[in-house]
Amino acid sequence: MDPVSEIKARLPIEQLVGQYVQMKPKGRNFVSLCPFHNDKHPSFLISPDKGIAYCFACNSGGDIFSFYQKVENVDFPQAIRELAERTGVALPKRGDAPIVDKDEKEQLRSCVEAAQKFFRKNLVSSELATKYLGKRGVPAALIETFGMGYAPDSFSDTYQYLLKEGFSRKEIIAAGLGIQKELSEERIYDRFRNRLMFPISDMQGRIVAFGGRTLGEDDAKYINSSEGPIYRKSGILFGLHLAREAIRENKRVVMVEGYFDVVACHKVGITNVVAVSGTALTEEHARILKRGADAVVLCLDADRAGQEAAERAFHILSKEGILVLAAEITAKDPDEAAQADAEDLKKRITDGAKPYLDLVLGQMRSQNLSRPEDRRNALQRVLKLLSALPTAVERQQYMAPFAALFGTTETALKEDLGRVVVTASQNSISGTAASVGARHAVPLPSSGKSFSPSPFSPAEISLGLFVLYPRLRNLLPELIAPEDPFGAALYEALKNSDQGTSDAVGALRGSKSSPQATMPLLAPEHQERLSVLLLFCEQHGFHEWSENLAAGEIRRNCQQANRTTILVKQRDVMAKLAVARKEGKTVEEAQLSTQYQQILKLSKMAG
Ligand SMILES: [Zn+2]
User: Fold this and answer.
1) Of 87, 141, 416, 557, which is least surrounded by CB within 10 A?
2) At a CB cut-off of 8 Å and minimum separation 6, what does 29 contact?
């Protein structure tokens, strides 16, 4: 078996996808919220027997490799390497090279790992760092859990160490650990000097970067590794790999601002906690959180910046359909709160967390809103917050209390809100929603149902039906051979397949023979699309039709496909004809005219 097939055989799609989303069984398949778009209902379909996970709302997904590429943001070779490693499948070595050419990202990961070892060794021998951690009340076990370290007070110790470990200067810079101040300058400086070091890991727990807290007088209290091939701030949450288990249990995640806040939460027994590292919360962060959690508890700093961050987080998280709660703390941040009263902090974060809007309501009630401009600003803020709520039901809950707060009626507030919501949804239509555009409408035998735009053309739909209903393959000549690579290959395969002997529909309905066994033979590069096509057919119940109904739908789709094909051909020949005429190429012109006549004939036949 080739490595790709072997990896597929060893890693079932549901096992891989289950590591990223919460799946629920549905018939012979599983469903989950789609990890690739802002999904409100479970649109992501995972089909164990087709080896496919796909979202027909945003048309993303595919087999294990396509899924892994998209969810981990890696290219195909990288996906093969990583999945081969996970499944223990040996990959053939390239050429006769004596040393296996290590992938760049892997090399950079080894580099940051080596750096972490160096930092940890230094922490043990640094009196300054150990004293500091003692002062902040970090127990030894948590220093261990988080793998904290210390970057020495030197411009080149780390760099020199990594060079000795066999990493190149280019790698040390790409790993975000070295700085070249001037391109012309040879010298590399250590990015982290005299700092307490927090390793930042990706979801698999692989270290990708560091955050460093100064132990000296540096103006920048915290700095992070620079972004590079293995570290994108917008896709990394600090502490997530340690939180995954607890998030799965709680379906909640606590969000704090700093590294020490995450540590403090662990100290009081809250482990479903993360922090963004070196950036503001992004939509990508929100989507990552949504894979495991239904609600986020914001526990940010009590200062103005923290409040602004909370408001921003509310908007981003609500837009993704996540319930946003807030925990009010009495100290400056969770870290100080934990030192003051650990039990109290724990209570405030767990039982004490309230919906964010309740908190806003409470704050506004205690504010003096008698000045018209204050009232107006407060109203603007409330309208924005309400319009960010994912459902009308949730919005309705807050109508009465906010209307009372502003001394107005629910109707008036609703009217104002209506204007904000309409503008917001218009914006989204011109943005992402439109790009998931309809290519072709899908035929529907039973009217009244509605579903999302099809990713498949009528030609592909009819080919899918030919796969499902082998006895109807005598209708194949009614379809003009498609010209796109996938359509052409499937058409050819169907033409050469046995007619009427196998029963894919029976197999799909659950009889013993596998639907794959009745599949026409296709080149590997087309098999994934065929599986997605068949999943689409199954999803819409095409396999449950009577043969009569199927024959009718095949004809309808063939006709629609033919009309498109003919139109394209006509345009093509006409354009060529015009050129030939203009250039006086009479022989060519005559040939093209004949072709045009043939197409017209074809078009009459196709109706
Ligand atoms: Zn999707």
Assistant:
1) 141
2) 45, 46, 47, 48
